[in-house]
Amino acid sequence: MNNAVEFHGISRRFGGVTAVDDVSFSIAAGETVALLGPSGCGKTTILRVIAGFERPDAGTVSIGGRNVTALKPYERNVGLLFQHYALFPHMTVAENIAYGLRHRGADKREIPDRVEAMLALVRLQGFGARRPHQLSGGQQQRVALARALATRPSLILLDEPLSALDAKLRQELRAELKQVLAAVNSTAMVVTHDQEEAMSLGERVFLMQSGRIVQVGTPSDVYGRPDTRFAADFMGRTNWIEAQVTRRETGFARATSRSGLSLMVPDCSSDAIDICVRPENIVLSAADAADPDGMANSAKGRILNVALLGATRQILVEMPGGQQLLVMQANRVGDGLDPGKAVRIGFPVAACITMPASNRAAPNASI
Amino acid sequence: MSAVTAIPLRKPASAVPALGRTTLLLLAPGLLLLFVIFALPLLGLALESLKQYVPGRVGSATDAPLTLENYRELATPSFAGVLYETFKLSAAAALTGLLAAFPLAYCIVRRFSPRQRAACIGLLVMLVLLSMLVRTYALELAFGSVGIARPLLLALGISPTSRWYIETLVGAGLLHAIVPICTLTLLGTIQNIDPRLCDAAQSLGAPAWKAHLGITVPLALPGLVSAFLIAMTFAISAFVIPMVLGKGRVLFLSNTIYTRFSDVANYPSGAAVSIVMLVISLLALSLVSLVRPRKGAGS
Lengths: 367, 299
Hints:
The structure holds 2 protein chains of 2 kinds. Chain A is of the alpha+beta class. Chain A folds into 2 domains: 3-234, 3-Layer(aba) Sandwich (Rossmann fold); 237-360, CATH 2.40.50.100. Helices cover 22% and strands 36% of the residues of chain A. Chain A has helices spanning 43-51, 93-103, 111-121, 137-150, 167-183, 195-201, 219-224, 229-235, and strands spanning 3-14, 17-28, 32-36, 58-63, 66-67, 78-81, 155-159, 188-192, 204-209, 212-217, 239-249, 252-257, 262-266, 272-277, 283-286, 297-308, 312-318, 324-330, 342-347, 352-356. In chain A, the strands form 4 sheets. A 6-stranded mixed sheet of chain A has the order 6-7-8-3-9-10, sandwiched between helices. By secondary structure, chain B is mainly α. Chain B has a domain at 89-249: MetI-like fold (Orthogonal Bundle), CATH 1.10.3720.10. Chain B has helices spanning 21-48, 69-72, 77-110, 114-129, 132-143, 150-155, 163-191, 195-203, 208-236, 240-246, 253-263, 267-288. Classes of the chains: A alpha+beta, B mainly alpha.
C-alpha cells in the first residue's frame, strides 16, 4: 500500500450542475497536497466526498487501500479541520480533543495522556480546561488541529485552514501547521482558493477548474510552467503579450507583439502565441542605460503609476505601442521610480512562458 | 511563533449606559401604557382578592373589610385537583410538543429549500393566528364524543366519554396550539447552531444520532428551555381548549376563574384564584428557567 488516498473517476452532480466531473488522483502516504481552485470549482465537494458527507454519483474512493465509497463519515478515519474551526463551544479544550478518542473507542485510561500529548504538539499545554471562546483565533485553530489529529487519522483534510486569520498570524500558523503535519507524518489535503496557501503548504498542487483537475505539479511547476491561461492567471499576477512568431532559431524564436515590440521567446510550435511574463521577472533600469546584461528583451517605456505594497511596489509601465506591463520591484530607497518617468524594461528569454493563442478560448479562462 | 498568550478570559460585562433624557422620553409612553393597562388592573385584582364576599352581590362592597377568607377557602381537595389537573396536562403537553417541534424545526432549517422553508413558516404562523375557538371545535367534531371518529374509537374499545380519553383530548387540543408555537421558537435556535459542528463530530467518529445528542441538543438547550416556558405558560392559561374539549369533566384554573366571576359573580374568590394561578405559574416558570446551559454554550 503506497497511496494513502485513491480517487478514481469521481463525479458528483447537483440537479443539472456537475460539481465534480470524472476526477481521479492519488495521494502518497505522508504527502501533503493542495487542492486549489476558485470558489465553485468543486473542491469543497471533493472534500465532502472524501470525508463521506457526499456520496459520489460515479467512481470510487479508497483510503489506506480500503474502498470507503459507501462508508458513513464516522466509519472512515478522516480528520477534518474546518475553516471556522467548528470547536464544540460547550466543551473544554480537553473535552474537544478527547471527543474523537471517546467515539473511536480509545482505552479510557489512555485518553488523558493522549490529550496532553496533542496539547503539547500544538504548544497549548495548560489550556485543557479553557473553553474555545476564551482562546484567540490562532489558538482555536491549533485546538482544532489537535482534535483532528488525536485519532491518528489516515488522512487529514484542511478546509481553507488559514483564511479566517489575519495576515500576520497566517504566516506564523502556516509555518507551525507545516511543522505539526511533518511531525506526525500525516497524509494531508489542503483545500483552498488561495494560491499562496496552496503553494506554501502543498508538496504538490492540484489545480481545479469547473469540476476538473486541470494541472498537477509541484508549486514551482504550476506557477512557473502553467499549462493554460487559467492556470497562469490563477497562480499569480501575469502580463500577457499577444505576439506572432516571425523567425525560429536554435533554442529560441523571434516574435513581434501586436503593439510592435520585438521579442525573443523560447522556441514554440505555434505561430500565433500568448506570452506570459510574471511581474517579478521584469527588471527596470534608467532609460538611457545600456541594455542590461542577460536581458534578451529590452525596451523603453514610461511609468504610468506606482502602487506601494510595503516591501515591494507594483509599477505599471506603458510601452510605446500601448502595451502595458506590470512590474514588481523591491521598494528601495531613492531609486526615483515615480509616475511619468522614462525607464527601460528588461526580461530574459527564460521569463517568457508561451502558449498557443488557441488556448485563449479555454472555458472560464478569465477570473 | 510568539509565546502562548491567553487573551482575557471574559470581556467585562459591558457597562449599562446611564439613562439619558431622550431615552427616558422614548421609554415613557411604553412604561405608562404598561402601568395603566397591566400593573394597575393587576393591583386592583390583588386588592379584590382580599375583600369579603357578600352573597348575592356583584363584586365586593367598596368598604368591605380586608380578609384572607377567599384564599383559605381554596385549601380544599377539589381546588387542589383543578390545580393538579392544570399543571399535569400543561406540562405533559408542553413536553410532548417540544419533542415533536424540535425535529420539525430542525428539518425546516436544515433540510428544506428556502421556498419550502418560507411555505412552512407561513403555515405555522397561520396556525398560530387561526382562531383558537375554531380549531378547538374542529378537534371536538373530529374526535369528540359525537365526532366523526366515534365508530373507530368504539371499535377500538375506547369510550369517548371516559375520563382518560377526555384528558387526552384536552392534551391534544393543547398540543395543537403548542407545536406550531414551539416550532417557530426553535427555528432561530437551530439556525444559530453551526451545522459544521455536527459534521466535525461525525468526522471524529460519532454516528449522526450521537452527534445530535452530544452537540445539537446541548447547544439548543437555551432555546428548548424558552420554548418549553412559552408552551407551559400558554397551556396553563388555556381557557377555550379545556372548556370545549373537557366538557366540564376536565377543568383548568381558567375555567374555575371564569365560573367564579361570571356564573356565581363571586369576584373576590375569582380574584383569589387568579392570584394563586399567577403566583404558582411564576414559581414553576422560574424553577424551569434555572436550567441554564454551561457557560459558553450557544454563544
